[in-house]
TrEMBL record, chains A, B:
One of its GO terms (molecular function) is oxidoreductase activity. Keywords: Oxidoreductase. CDD domains: Lin1944_like_SDR_c. Belongs to the short-chain dehydrogenases/reductases (SDR) family. Gene3D superfamilies: NAD(P)-binding Rossmann-like Domain. The lineage of its organism: Bacteria, Pseudomonadati, Pseudomonadota, Alphaproteobacteria, Hyphomicrobiales. InterPro entries: NAD(P)-bd_dom_sf (IPR036291), SDR_DHRS6-like (IPR051122), SDR_fam (IPR002347). This is NAD(P)-dependent dehydrogenase (Short-subunit alcohol dehydrogenase family). The keyword Oxidoreductase applies. It comes from the Bacteria.
């Protein structure tokens, strides 16, 4: 397959490309590096990227992480700004990418655990990820030419614990291996309209009063 | 309690006010009628409304319904326009309303079934409702002074079947009585951070291959 990976130089992107390029042709896209440059906050930049890339069999987005926020001073302007990349940007990857993705091709987007599991300081990220989940449910029944769409909702990945672990004390990380398997399953499998929660929920992790 | 009902003249709003005014002081807000006028698409209008109303014990929003959309021609601009009322507007009711809501007071918002159950032509409504669900999970752990927040996610209400039933064939409606009970439980009960899905899911409704 010919696979476009948006956010290819990020922590998840590098590991995903490493796995995918064993079997597929990879086109790396990123804001500052890659085979093609794109800032997904810009609708025009996404359109130009697709024109440059041409037909593909899969588009995977592992780009864009939202800023943390202070709820006491949070404004709608901050929320809308935060949405531009991870929510509107990923939606535009789908809306503008449809003609370039082959029949039975797929979109795989990235949300995050805060859609379903609240944490302080990430209201913006929660709104984005929750909106993205529902977008994927809808898009899956709207897309034609048997195109598929799924979204992977990661928790913090093991490789990021050193950098971000202090922000999320007590949050069990997911291994990079499991996370990459989630993306590969979406790209190479047949599922559509699914939200792949790449973590165990807090309740499941500490079920019945003991760690499992 | 002193309760602000935003969208008081709508189908749900009228029934909700009828029930609440048996025990509480109701302030009706709406775009074209009510004790106070407000268009929740405008941040300034919401701020003015709260200044005019003063301290309240509960804010309930049953206003704003999203436009339907055509996925084949859907644009990010349409989605953002659609978000202004039901998503950003309801978020602003919370962000700007906090100082006006009493200790242990509450916010009750309204999303919709399409957050979780896809249907054609409502991608915008889905994104809005999904984002709202995650906002409420976050806000519940961020609000101070023991303020509470919940969201009711209705399906089509029985009273609307004549007007909208043809758009959603096969969708089981919820009775107005059950739906109003969901709002009353949020306002007068102690729950917070909950998504009250005021419907049975499609799978539950037709479980085990037969109607239940």
């Amino acid at each position: 397959m010919r696979i476009l990976v948006v956010g290819a130089s990020g922590t998840i992107g590098r590991a995903l490309c490493f796995e995918l390029e064993r079997r597929h042709d990879i086109i790396r896209a990123g804001r500052t590096s890659g085979d093609v440059l794109v800032d997904i906050r810009s609708r025009d930049a996404i359109a130009r990227m697709y024109e440059a890339v041409g037909e593909i069999d899969a588009c995977v987005c592992v780009a864009a992480s939202g800023a943390m926020d202070d709820f006491d001073t949070l404004t709608d302007a901050q929320l809308i700004e935060n949405m531009q990349g991870k929510l509107i940007g990923q939606i535009n990857l789908v809306l503008l990418g449809r003609p370039f993705v082959s029949e039975r091709g797929s979109f795989t987007l990235t949300s995050g655990i805060f859609a379903d599991e609240p944490w302080r300081g990430v209201t913006g990220g929660a709104v984005i990820s929750g909106g993205l989940h529902s977008f994927v449910l809808s898009a899956a029944i709207e897309l034609d030419r048997k195109q598929r769409i799924n979204v992977v909702s990661p928790t913090m990945v093991e490789d990021s614990v050193t950098a971000y672990g202090h922000l999320f004390p007590g949050m069990p990380p997911v291994s990079m291996e499991s996370l990459i398997a989630a993306y590969v399953g979406c790209i190479e499998g047949g599922r559509t309209g699914e939200i792949i929660r790449a973590y165990r929920s807090f309740e499941d992790f500490f079920s019945k009063g003991r760690c499992v």
